[in-house]
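Please decode residue identities from the backbone states below.
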């Protein structure tokens, strides 16, 4: 029993040590290239070293670690396990009476720790870090704003819909507001122009026409040249920042999706993919760990190099498949939840067959 405990610690130390080393190396390389690429922008916008380091790169590191954790979990497993196999350590362990299933135990502990870290980063750390990082990027690097300002249709509250032909610079043209109750429209407002008053924090409509239907069925018509009005709407609602969802925790993201669904946004699928990926992606760590152990525990001619080559092909095919499946979700062909879990399911089946192939 003591030997098994030492073996667990031995494998776990190699697993986590190789993983941490790989993540540190790739993070340093990416940051160096990122600095060289963005240095001109930093100088152009007069960004000082303190916000660059503490607002941007300190909050960029958790994002990097989480982004590459399944891939480098797999690479770490393949690398040190294939070296153990090349030195006949796997043969000695199995020959000493330890079953292959028992050999997987420390690997699963390592995968559990890395997956748990990824889940925690996804739901608690990274959204807060992204708030600071994206604020820095919007100030010094770019503006990821996407304006949807042509033929705007929105539901601003239950049963209340608006339409604008165009909206730019806080001014909308050909504005219509309808209060729809069942098959009836008891209130309708039309205006040639609508403008946001930033001082009063309300809207001003010009050349307007209002039709109200009273309970007795009679109509009341109101028209005029200019009028202040209050709407459950502000100019920010016409601007969708596609990166903003990355700065929302689970509760905030759910509320945001509900709001956008009510408004009739066309990007709901992309927001739901972001939410579901935060849970599905960390679980890939377990699947890739099992595939890595099964692949590299057999001693073959070519050793570590061959195992790494095959392993990288499998890992990148998984990432590619994840991107393809989420693209289908964004296009509305499959549900976001299914799209993010399909790669785990298919590669889980691959892991099962590779386990059967592994040396026992």
């Amino acid at each position: 029993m003591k030997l098994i405990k030492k073996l667990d610690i031995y494998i776990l130390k190699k697993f986590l040590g190789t993983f941490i080393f790989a993540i540190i190396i790739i993070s340093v390389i990416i940051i160096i290239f990122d600095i060289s690429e963005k240095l001109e922008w930093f100088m152009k916008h007069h960004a000082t070293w303190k916000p660059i380091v503490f607002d941007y790169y300190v909050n960029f590191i958790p994002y990097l670690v989480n982004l590459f954790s399944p891939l480098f979990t797999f690479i770490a497993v393949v690398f040190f396990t294939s070296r153990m196999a090349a030195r006949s350590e796997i043969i000695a362990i199995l020959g000493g009476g330890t079953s292959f299933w028992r050999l997987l135990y420390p690997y699963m502990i390592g995968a559990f720790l890395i997956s748990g870290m990824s889940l925690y980063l996804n739901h608690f750390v990274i959204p807060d870090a992204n708030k600071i990082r994206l604020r820095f990027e919007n100030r010094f690097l770019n503006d990821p704003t996407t304006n949807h300002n042509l033929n705007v249709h929105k539901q601003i509250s239950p049963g209340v819909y608006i339409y604008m032909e165009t909206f730019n610079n806080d001014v909308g043209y050909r504005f219509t507001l309808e209060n729809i109750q069942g098959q009836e429209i008891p209130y309708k407002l039309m205006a040639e122009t609508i403008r946001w008053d930033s001082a009063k924090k309300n809207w001003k409509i010009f050349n307007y026409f209002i039709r109200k239907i009273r309970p007795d069925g009679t109509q009341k018509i109101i028209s005029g040249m200019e009028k202040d009005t209050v709407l459950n709407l502000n100019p920010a609602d016409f601007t969708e920042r596609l990166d903003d969802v990355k700065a929302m925790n689970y509760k905030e993201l759910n509320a945001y999706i509900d709001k956008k669904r009510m408004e009739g946004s066309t990007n709901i699928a992309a927001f739901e993919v972001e939410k579901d990926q935060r849970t599905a992606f960390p679980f890939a760590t377990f699947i890739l760990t099992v595939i890595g152990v099964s692949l590299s525990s057999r001693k073959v001619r070519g050793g570590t190099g061959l195992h790494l080559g095959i392993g990288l092909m499998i890992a990148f095919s998984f990432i590619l498949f994840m991107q393809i499946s989420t693209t289908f979700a964004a296009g509305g062909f499959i549900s976001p939840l299914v799209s993010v879990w399909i790669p785990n399911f298919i590669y889980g089946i691959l892991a099962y067959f590779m386990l059967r192939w592994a040396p026992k």
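Observation: The helical segments are 2-44, 49-86, 89-95, 100-140, 250-263, 268-296, 303-330, 336-357.
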